[in-house]
Amino acid sequence: MSLISRLLFSYWPLKVTALGLAVVLYMGVAISESTRTFEGPIPIEVLNAPSGGALLDDPGVVESIEYRASDEVAEALTRDSFRASIDLSSVQPRPGANTVAVPVDVFPVDPRVRVVDYEPQGRTVRVDAVISRLLPVEVEHGPLPEGIELGPITVEPNQATVSGASSRLQNVRSVEGRFVVDASGINIDVNVPLEAFDADGAIVPGVDVQPSTARVRSDVGYQLAYATLPVIPQLVGEPARGRRVDNVSVLPATVTVSGESPDVRGLDRIDTAPVDISEQEVELVAEVPLELSEELTATGEGLVTVIVTFTEALGSRSYEIGTAITGAQPGFTYQLEEPSVSVTLSGSVQQLDELTPDEVSVEVPVDELVVGDNAVMPIVRTPRGTALVRVDPPTLRVTVGQAQ
Q1: Comparing C-alpha atoms, which of 291, 288, 282 is closest to residue 312?
Q2: Gap between the Cα atoms of 78 and 39, Å rounded
Q3: Which SS3 state, helix, strand or coil, does residue 86 take?
Q4: CA distance 339 to 337
Q5: What residues are paired with 356 via a beta bridge?
Q6: Tell me: the pLDDT tens digits for 47-69?
């Protein structure tokens, strides 16, 4: 008998017993580890991503897993008990996002769990070549507040490198940083994030911009505003005694000023420097500067001519004047109740100041009165150049009687 035959048939009772024991043990394990289903989702990880390539699709999830495990182990399982992945080590990225089918691999973290089946078994993904482009950095500040203007804008750096999948990078039209200009007028010196934008002004996702920020600087100022405003002379002092201002004129009557918008918007006039009219009698012609703040500038030389003419100052005065009876008739007596009246005259101030009561007379005519009490309106005679304004009282009582 050959050596092989002896090995096969020797000790055969012992070998049969061992085989029977193995079958019993296997049946025990099979009974204790029935097939179960674990409902996902289990995220699919990407392994060995190709250098120079970009995965354009989310690999998705494994929805369900069939496995075998003991009751004790199965009760402790969670989503973290399984790993799902796809391996892209064999994928060669090409520009234009080539589509490839790759198998999904699922394995348990606990070695006491055996994966039997799962869904899905594979995924179709798109892998694109990664490319780079150098683009100028542009900045956008949006609408400016009213009256605000920007000086020259400097950007550091003025170029940026854009990297990403070729199919995404072809949509990039610009690299921009955006900032806001405050109405306070504070100069701009900010670091702004840089983003890649398409032709419609939307951000292109999945694109890397380096550097990721840029420094933007600009001086902020107020726009120059212009306004044509009336010139108002500022007169100081008093003219000569008995004189008053008759007319004031300015050449030119208006002036155009410029300055930052807030300074100009609040103006409704431009004043001159003070013009002294002290002791002036007939006419004053003076060339005077405009009173402007440092923030404002006037067209021309900033000088105007002020012409002031003067005339007599008019006024009124009251005088107490004694009354005199005129036209008395023989055989009658006359009794005047008010020996004087108050007379108010108007005229030039100088004449009124120099006038004396003797220059004014108040006559009470009685030639046509009858016996008894009579109300008589007095006759007031005033100097030339004056006018009667009022007599108080306006009528006087005169009592007429028969002489004895």
Answers
A1: 282
A2: 10
A3: strand
A4: 6
A5: none
A6: 988 888 888 888 999 999 999 99
Q: What is the pLDDT of residue 24?
A: 43
- Reading the block at residue 237, the tokens are 């002092």
What's the pLDDT score for residue 29?
46
How far is it, in rounded angstroms, from Cα 137 to Cα 175? 5
Radius of gyration of the CA atoms of the chain, in A: 57
Q: How many CB atoms lie within 10 A of CB 379?
A: 13
DSSP string computed for 135-191: EEEEEE--SPPTTEEE---EEESSEEEEEEEHHHHTT--EEEEE----TT-PPEEEE
Tell which residue, 372, 380, 370, 361, has the closest CA to residue 329: 370
Mention every residue, 6+ apart, whose C-beta is less than 8 A from residue 132: 161, 162, 163, 169
Q: Which helix (H) or strand (E) holds 106?
A: strand 98-108
Would the pTM of this model clear 0.85, i.e. be above it? no
Whether the CB-CB separation of 273 and 236 falls below 8 Å is answered with no
User: Residue 217, CB half-sphere, CA atoms under 13 Å: how many?
Assistant: 5
The beta strand positions in 173-282, using DSSP E, are 174-178, 188-197, 208-210, 213-218, 220-222, 224-236, 243-251, 254-260, 270-276
d(CA 299, CA 318): 53
> Could you identify the residue written with the tokens 């399982």?
77
Give me the mean pLDDT over the 16-41 stretch.
Answer: 62
Question: What's the token pair of residue 274?
Answer: 């003070």
Residue with tokens 């840089």: 194
Locate 48 and state its tokens.
């060995």
Tokens of 186: 């504070």
pLDDT tens readout for residues 276-324? 999 999 999 999 999 988 778 887 778 999 999 999 888 999 999 999 9
